[in-house]
TrEMBL record:
This is Ribosome-recycling factor. GO terms for cellular component: cytosol. GO terms for biological process: cytoplasmic translational termination. NCBIfam families: frr (TIGR00496). Belongs to the RRF family. HAMAP family: RRF. One of its GO terms (molecular function) is ribosomal large subunit binding. It is found in: Cytoplasm. Its main location: cytoplasm. InterPro entries: Ribosome_recyc_fac, Ribosome_recyc_fac_dom, RRF_sf. Keywords: Cytoplasm, Protein biosynthesis. Residues 22-184 form the Ribosome recycling factor domain.
Amino acid sequence: MSVSEVTKSAEARMRKSLENLQLELAKLRTGRAHAGILDHVQVEYYGSMVPVSQIGNVTVVDARTLSIQVWEKNMAGAVDKAIRESDLGLNPQAMGEVIRVPMPALTEERRRDLTKVVRGEGEGAKIAVRNLRRDANEQLKRLVKDKTISEDDERRGQDDIQKLTDRYVAEVDKLVSQKEAEIMKV
């Protein structure tokens, strides 16, 4: 393994951490409707648990309303029940094959709580990136010990990995501040 391979591997894993943060932040409700909010809601479908998106079409009607068009009429009740029992605090309204999900407005206190959650998610992502930096630096030390690379190559590799780490930490900070601004916007 070479220095460039260690660096590429670390960068790929840091990118995955950033993508995971984006997915986690997308799940947080901001008072605006978006189809991704129901991604983790599971519905029992003939004995197995599946996401709502596999039972019907989830669309955004307007800024505060989602609509779910179920493909099988008898599944509307199960989808309605699953959304009510989820931790999202939503109150769906079933109308035959269509379920409307209005998004309630967020209170100021709830907005502050959500920003704390966002910061926590961001800190978790930063820790993951720093752990990946540590792992990459350990790999470089192993390569020096095995006499595969020189100490100068190790130092250059560590500098490159530090630059990557700084870049991804800055990206995490940017995502967190964007999400906080989105949550606090009334």
